[in-house]
Design a protein that fits this description.
37% helix; 10 helices; globular; alpha/beta; 7-stranded parallel sheet; 14 strands; 3-stranded antiparallel sheet
């Protein structure tokens, strides 16, 4: 325990390096108050950890708690395991839902992120918003389901090594199997599977250039159990799980890990037509031991975990994030 008031020397060590307090305050969206007792003035929802130079402790200050608490500094190897400082990441479908949460969490852990989406307005708005918060992001407008769209993304990525690739872009059309038309099937296949397969092939040189690179697919529990989400969608997600297993073995000796995350219903635009229906939502909740649908940041946290050094011995796995639904036998709740 360190006694006495911390001294502010004009700069402090953040997760991204040394920076002037005023600049970091602006990036975090909080007020910096100068003077002999300089301090952070924070909204109630913020908690800021600051590592003082050479002190080996973390100081926590919050606006609704006047006390300053100290925490033992984690050993260097533990910090490295749970950080992504200096890493370069890609997130497809990164402007909404799980993809949006992935971008924010990767950046918060020190990574710089290239994200893409089809809608120019969404990409530009997110890029401006994130940059205003000090996040290191580059937005690319493209449709990864097409050859031309993937070419645009690959050109934007250039030849710099890539540490993380989160294949999140996906779509669905919910119909009875006999009601699908060829365009529906082609759209689902190209977006959910073909885009991932082709991007993995194209990105392999960038991934193999960095030891410990990680690829994570956003799959679905529909790829493991039968759901009323449509058979083409389920087939593409099962294919992603198998692709993760295949690439994990094929690329493992080159230091590339490949995993998938399989969520259940999550609060996203893609799932909105289902979970906005009270009857459908009641049925989902009744089958889920945790009694609710997932939040996008909960699924993103599992994806980001698989990107970190902390998961460096995990590859070829499908991490199910479903509130216990897939292990439920005949339990129901009302």
């Amino acid at each position: 325990m360190v006694r006495g008031r911390p001294t502010w020397k004009g700069s402090f060590k953040t997760v991204g390096g040394w920076a002037p307090p005023k600049r970091m305050a602006a990036a975090l969206g909080v007020d910096w108050v100068a003077g002999p007792s300089s301090r952070w003035r924070l909204p109630n929802r913020y908690s800021v950890f600051i590592c003082l130079r050479g002190k080996g402790i973390f100081w926590l200050r919050t606006s609704d708690n006047a006390r300053t608490q100290s925490f033992t500094h984690l050993p260097a190897y533990q910090q490295h395991m749970w950080r992504l400082d200096g890493r370069r990441a890609l997130v497809t479908g990164g402007t909404a839902g799980i993809g949006e949460s992935c971008v924010e969490q990767l950046c918060s852990l020190g990574a710089s992120v290239v994200f893409c989406a089809r809608t120019e307005r969404d990409v530009l708005e997110k890029q401006a918003s994130w940059r205003a918060r000090g996040l290191l992001v580059v937005g690319v407008v493209c449709d990864v389901s097409s050859v031309e769209g993937r070419a645009v993304l690959l050109a934007a990525l250039g030849e710099l090594p890539l540490d993380v690739a989160v294949m999140n872009a996906g779509t669905n059309v919910r119909r009875a199997t006999t009601a699908y038309v060829p365009d529906d099937i082609e759209r689902i296949w190209n977006t959910n599977y073909a885009s991932v397969f082709e991007l993995c092939r194209a990105l392999k040189p960038l991934l193999s250039a960095r030891p410990g690179a990680s690829v994570v697919f956003n799959s679905s529990v529909a790829g493991a159990v039968s759901l009323a989400s449509g058979s083409p969608y389920a087939a593409t997600k099962a294919a992603l799980n198998q692709l993760a297993r295949s690439l994990a073995c094929e690329w493992g000796r080159e230091g590339i890990r490949v995993n998938s995350v399989a969520p259940w219903y999550t609060q996203t635009r893609l799932a909105a037509p289902v979970i906005d229906d009270p009857v459908a939502l009641a049925g989902i909740v009744a089958r889920t031991p945790l009694g609710r649908v997932a939040r996008s940041e909960e699924v993103a946290a599992c994806i980001v975990f698989l990107c970190m050094p902390a998961s460096s011995y995990v590859t070829g796995q499908t991490l199910t994030v479903d509130g216990g639904m897939s292990v439920n036998g005949n339990w129901t709740w009302t």
